[in-house]
Amino acid sequence: MNHTYFMQLALNLASKGLGKVSPNPMVGCLIVKNNEVLASGYHQEFGFAHAEVNAIEQLDSSISTKDCILYVTLEPCSHFGKTPPCADLIIQKGFKLVVVACQDPNPLVAGKGIKKIKDSGIEVIEGVLEKEAIELNKTFFCYFKKKRPYLILKWAQTADGFISKWPIPINPADNFISGATSNNLVHQLRSQTMAIMVGKNTVLNDNPRLTTRLNNGKNPIRILIDKSLEIPFDYHVYNSDDQVIIFNSTLEKQSLNHQFIKIDFNQSIIPQILETLFQLNIQSVLVEGGAYLLTSIIDIGIWDELIVIQNPNIYFNTGIKAPLIELKSSFEKIGDDNLFHIFN
Q: What 3-state DSSP class applies to 103?
């Protein structure tokens, strides 16, 4: 039996949930008999049925599950959350064999689902394409293993290493660096992360919306670092598009979709922010600036990915310098821009 082949199909299916299921993981499931896929399902949206339920519901009722193998990319849950335990459903259906890519790092599951299925007498094979399954849900695993959100740092820079002119031009277009294709990619990335974080100066200088308006995806939670609450409330980041979290030094308050959280700016703020975001169940954060915030995170080494968009045709000669990161010779062309993708 080619377990690797069928697990890869299940992983491909799971990836369809990208940007739609967080803070849950992406999960795919196949039901196979005599090397033929009879039913499949994936977790499509947070709060709705899990992959195993969707696959089992698709299976023709005339087919005996006792003759079938169930493939699932993540250990079936064993606890009651927004849905009943999938492990119980699998046991009830009595599959011949269950093949699991990897264990769930969530302490509520963490081996309990597999043990429950094994204890019922169903054979379980673990670790098929485990590395690939963990990579698919890298933000989910980072959150539970490292007790912090998965951090992606992103910026655009000129050929000579500047992220902005200074002073900021009156006409915003004079400060544009990345092209339309890159901008669409960034909005897609925003739709795939739970939150987006910027510093005060980025908001004051650019008045960004921090939404996915070019992608039509789900807007991320907006996180602002504004020590003295200097950002005017009529700026775009305070609109009603989505939740806003404001880390500051004075105010602790929840108001409509605005959550003000007080932290100690006399100490390193990044660990405080990450600890708070962990408690808020925010599993992935895209950090888009500015230079001081990006450099602060790079300096303490707590990041997972860097995405640098370089326009090789624009030179500012002077201005705000990009964070100092060595860009390797390998990059991907995105329209007219160069995309550098670096993993920590």
A: coil
